[in-house]
Amino acid sequence: MELFLKLFLAHLLGDFTFQSKKWVLDKEEKKLRSGKLYFHTLIHIVLAFLFIWDLSLWYIPLIVGITHFLIDAAKLSLQTARTKRLLFFLDQLLHIAVIICISLLQTSTKIDFSNIFNSELLLLFCAVVFLTEPASILIKTIISVYTPKTEMDKGDSLENAGKYIGMLERLLVFTFIATNHWEGVGFLIAAKSIFRFSDLTEAKDRKLTEYILIGTLLSFGIAIVTSLLYISEVFHL
Q1: Is residue 138 assigned to a domain?
Q2: DSSP 207-225
Q3: Could you give the number of structural domains in the chain?
Q4: 43, 66, 69, 232 — which has fewest CB within 10 A?
Q5: pLDDT digits (tens, 9 = 90+) for 55-80
């Protein structure tokens, strides 16, 4: 379990936190000719090594890096505008499957170093990191099939404000539930509804209203499910 959490956290950081949108676009445009693809692979190897921190297990970061490169290369080669959404989820499932396989095959090996990170703390890090950039990209990918037109001027909005608001609300929901303060979740939903009301009335677009509601409910739903999974796992550790 501990090895899986370390590799999963390294994956979240490498695939989302330490990979900018410019890198993704560069890889999609140049595919296997993109230098960002190879640097991205190197980041995963380094992160896996840092979290494991055991020279006797040098082959694990190497396996992670090689399989990550092969999966990403296959996705970039096969990806089209029509299959992009499907391949995103398939790509992530394959990466996680590799991590699971490595963890299962390595269960008999004990890692002496790294008592700094126990399973409960690693689980907390995984939940927090997942609720930031990975969850934002997940929600954006899910609702990408909807493209409502709006009369609202995008220039009046701060750049990436919606993304960071979503991250903060998910982290707040996680904090409220983890500390057993469910009333805070209700307050947060009510507060966001009030702030969103003016946007929706100004837009006068039913499709936009539904689009915003889907995104909001997905954001809160992911945060609540992640929080409940975290709580249930902590009790079993």
Answers
A1: no
A2: HHHHHHHHHHHHHHHHHHH
A3: 2
A4: 232
A5: 999 999 999 999 999 999 999 999 99
